[in-house]
Write a structure and sequence with these properties.
Length: 448
């Protein structure tokens, strides 16, 4: 039996024995409760103070999203408290709303709820203020008019008349006011003592990680005697990967300017090593992959603490220095092995796209045995994704991996086949992968 499945069975039995509600326990890392009205304190998950962790009723996971939206403007979930009729929304329990509501996915983007960063930014704004003032002046005008009166004696009498004239003149004054706002965030590597034993601090999406020297390992290089990952033979070319899918796919397709997003959990280690081996075989190939993202689904975080979009264990590195690439990959492997079966594939994809905006090809090297936990984030992926499927072992292709290609207008790649344009198949149509067929439905592909 799959060791991850055994772990889930063990956890489920443990929860029953201890009398803990499994659904409630799964939300403890999110700060929400599974009841219709959340009474727990909000959990903040971003440098944006408006962002909180919201519990998604359909998955039991958390989503970091902006809460600067009034509850009255949101649509209530369907009667099952899981389904949403509004496009691009997901049913959540919001700590501020009385009922489960359909929350917009665009409020969970990293541009809206960014993680703690490592920069300080000065923002200068110039505001022009125009004021109009009415100025009133009063002027006294004196005129003298001679008047002649004829009687038996002629006399001339001057008559003086004073007239007040009021004039109103508008005066316009324009003033420019310059305001400078300093936005300060935390430099995760500013503290030189973060990494122990001469480890090198590297800023990352999750704050920082440490590249450890020699046989040191751990989140801060605190451990000595790094365990054998079983990939050194693949890396140095003395051993072939147990799964040649990655090498076969990359050899068949002449892709360039690639951001490669690689699952390094559990049995995926050999596939990850195969990517590195393929790239080092010739200098020409080194220029094809521009950026790597290695992900391990949370850095050994407890399953209950894994929040959709903020699970963590995501490591990025440019490919300029191949020695650094291998150190980052091994660091990701040492720091986490995946825990439960679902992985944070889409979170890692979004990070790779953000870090390599000019990359023209996005590939995801995915585990066929693991369904991504964060498929709800696919609406935020704006590029076609080429999904390379490892660990099929003559089993059926995981339909959820086809859905990644479907919803991003990407493609699916296996040991022997390349299936392009899966999004062009009409509803009710089928595709064949190996000896099995899959039908497209309104919600995605299903195995026939």
């Amino acid at each position: 039996m799959n060791p991850k499945l055994l772990l889930i069975v063990f956890l489920s039995v443990s929860l029953l024995i201890t009398g803990i509600n499994a659904k409630a326990a799964s939300t403890s890392g999110c700060g929400c409760c599974p009841s219709a009205k959340c009474s727990a304190e909000p959990v903040y998950c971003s440098s944006n103070v408006d962002c909180e962790c919201l519990w998604m009723t359909v998955t039991g996971g958390g989503m970091c999203a902006s809460t600067a939206i009034s509850c009255s403007s949101l649509t209530r979930c369907e009667n099952d408290n899981q389904t949403c009729s509004v496009p691009n929304t997901v049913c959540v329990n919001n700590t501020r709303c009385d009922v489960p509501v359909c929350y917009p996915l665009d409020q969970a983007k990293t541009s809206v709820c960014p993680p703690v960063g490592s920069k300080s930014t000065l923002i200068s704004t110039i505001t022009t203020i125009t004021t109009t003032t009415s100025v009133t002046t009063t002027t006294s005008v004196t005129t003298t008019t001679p008047t002649t009166t004829t009687t038996s004696v002629a006399t001339t009498t001057p008559i003086t008349t004073t007239t007040s004239v009021t004039t109103t003149t508008p005066t316009t004054t324009t003033t420019s006011v310059t305001t400078t706002v300093t936005v300060r965030t935390i430099d995760a590597c500013s503290n030189g003592t973060r990494c122990l034993n001469n480890g090198t601090c590297q800023p990352s999406r999750d704050g920082f990680f440490c590249l450890c020297p020699g046989r040191y390992y751990g989140s801060r290089c605190e451990n000595y005697g790094a365990p054998d990952l079983g990939i050194d033979g693949i890396l140095n070319g003395t051993k072939n990967s147990s799964d040649p899918t990655v090498e076969n796919v990359l050899n068949r397709n002449n892709w360039t300017n690639i951001v490669a997003v690689v699952d390094v959990t559990g049995s995926m280690k050999s596939c990850a090593a195969a990517v590195y081996k393929w790239m080092t075989l010739s200098r020409e190939r080194r220029d094809k992959i521009q950026y790597y993202v290695f992900f391990n689904d949370g850095d050994k975080k407890s399953d209950a603490s894994k929040v959709i979009g903020r699970t963590g264990g995501v490591y990025g590195v440019n490919t300029g220095n191949l020695e650094t690439v291998i150190r980052v990959m091994k660091t990701a492997m040492y720091n986490g092995d995946g825990g439960d079966i679902p992985e944070n594939d889409i979170e890692a994809l979004l990070y790779g796209i953000e870090q390599c905006p000019n990359c023209t090809n996005t590939i995801l090297i995915a585990d066929n045995q693991a369904t991504p936990r964060d498929l709800v984030l696919l609406a935020n992926v704006t590029r076609p994704v080429k999904v390379i499927v490892c660990q099929m072992n003559n089993n059926a292709l995981n339909p959820k991996l086809i859905d990644i290609a479907l919803k991003t207008h990407g493609s699916i790649h296996t040991l022997k086949e390349d299936i392009f344009k899966v999004a062009d198949i009409s509803i009710g149509g089928t595709i064949t992968v190996g000896s099995r067929s899959y039908r497209r439905t309104n919600s995605g592909y299903v195995l026939i």
